[in-house]
Amino acid sequence: MHQFTRFSLPLCMVVDEGVFGHTDEILEDYMPGITKKKAILVTEEFLKNTYSDIVREICDDFGEAPVFTVSDADYETASALAKKISMESIGVVIGFGGGRVLDTAKYAAHISKAVYICLPTTLSNDSLASPFSVLTMEGRSRKTLPCKIPTAIIVDTEMIRKAPVSQTMSGIGDTIGKYTAVYDWAIAAKAGNARLDDFAYSIASMCCDSIMYCDEKSIQSKHFMTALSRALVMGGLAMEIAGSSRPCSGSEHLFAHAIEEYYPDIKISHGLAVALGCVGSANFQGRDDMKIIEVCKKYGLDLNPETYGISRDMFADIWMKAPGTRPDRVSILNDTELNREWIDEIYSRMQK
Ligand SMILES: [Zn+2]
CB burial class (10 A; 0-12, 13-18, 19+) of residue 9? Predict the structure, then answer.
């Protein structure tokens, strides 16, 4: 059966040095009159204080917009924010921050039907432009909720440079993960478990290639940051076009989910967990993992599980539990006879 797909793309995507100071002019160019609409800026206390000048400037430019601070990306906060937006007839939601802030702002803007402007302060994962929001429900389980993607995305490379480099490394890991994600998607499509979208597939593959084959060695350079922001944003758009997270999430993400769910005490960023998973997934898929290992070395991503306190036993257990984290998601793991010897071999490889 043929399914008709509908998707929308952002009107504006600007990546440059110091652009947050020109947010109003940039948005006016794309959406004349937008600065006259009632707006709200969503951020967190720490960012509001650290970047008080730029936060004040943006609020001033949007008719003295109020600031709404969030401390967690939970459903209750997002709903309270959506209620405020609706009750006060606010038309523009400006998300200024990292994953927590952006997921909350995106969901609140989505349910209140406000225009959502995304101003990321870190490049830690591809959720910034994805059609999903991950929110905690009642302080416990995290739920992925469908959302409208941002109307505008502005990335200030000067701001990203101020963020901890570990966040940027996480963004690299999430991007590299597409190497195995698209492959798993094709496997799932063959098995009748998913519908492959050629364009989303190509976009996600290109995102991965743009970082894997990037000739820029310095992670802090404007050139690299531009490449990474594009890769993360385009990853989000690939999900929007596909109507699912498939182009960006395969068995390497199941590995990351298993860490999150069964070993919550392990301190590892989402993107690094994905990069670790990507090595295993590539091996299970019978593909070369050298490119993954090389690019991680080049940008300082440590693939040794021991660094994060993941022992051999834990590593094997995480892989065993991975398929169960999303049982409906077919991947190479459905066709793989996971055995301890093989997993140990991969572990050893990652220690080098
Ligand atoms: Zn991810």
Answer: exposed
> Which residues form the domain of 228?
165-351
Residue 7 has pLDDT above 90, yes or no: no
Residue 192's domain is classified under what CATH number? 1.20.1090.10
The answer, yes or no, to whether residue 3 has pLDDT greater than 60, is: no
Helix boundaries (H) for 177-299: 178-190, 198-212, 222-242, 251-262, 270-284, 290-298
Q: What is the 345 CA–ligand 1 centroid distance (Å)?
A: 25
Residue 181 CA to ligand 1 centre (angstroms): 10
Domain CATH code at residue 94 = 3.40.50.1970
Give bridge partners of residue 40 from the DSSP assignment. Answer: 93
Q: Report pLDDT for 352.
A: 85
Residue 192 Cα to ligand 1 midpoint, Å, equals 23
* 248 and 237 Cβ atoms separated by less than 8 Å: no
Cα 53 to ligand 1 centroid, rounded to whole Å: 31
How many domains does the chain fold into? 2
Q: Is 70 exceeded by the pLDDT of residue 226?
A: yes
Q: What confidence tens digit (pLDDT) does each residue in 63-85 have?
A: 999 999 999 899 999 999 999 99
Residues 75 and 106 grouped into a single domain: yes
CA dihedral of residues 181, 182, 187, 192 (deg, nearest 10): 100
Task: Say how many Å lie between the CA of residue 179 and the centre of ligand 1.
Answer: 12
Residues 195, 119, single domain; the answer is no
**Residue 345 falls inside a structural domain:** yes
The answer as to whether 5 is a domain residue is no
- What is the Å distance from ligand 1's center to 176 Cα? 10
In a domain, 2, yes or no: no
Ligand 1 mean position to 61 CA, how many Å? Answer: 33
Residue 112 alpha carbon to ligand 1 centre in Å = 26
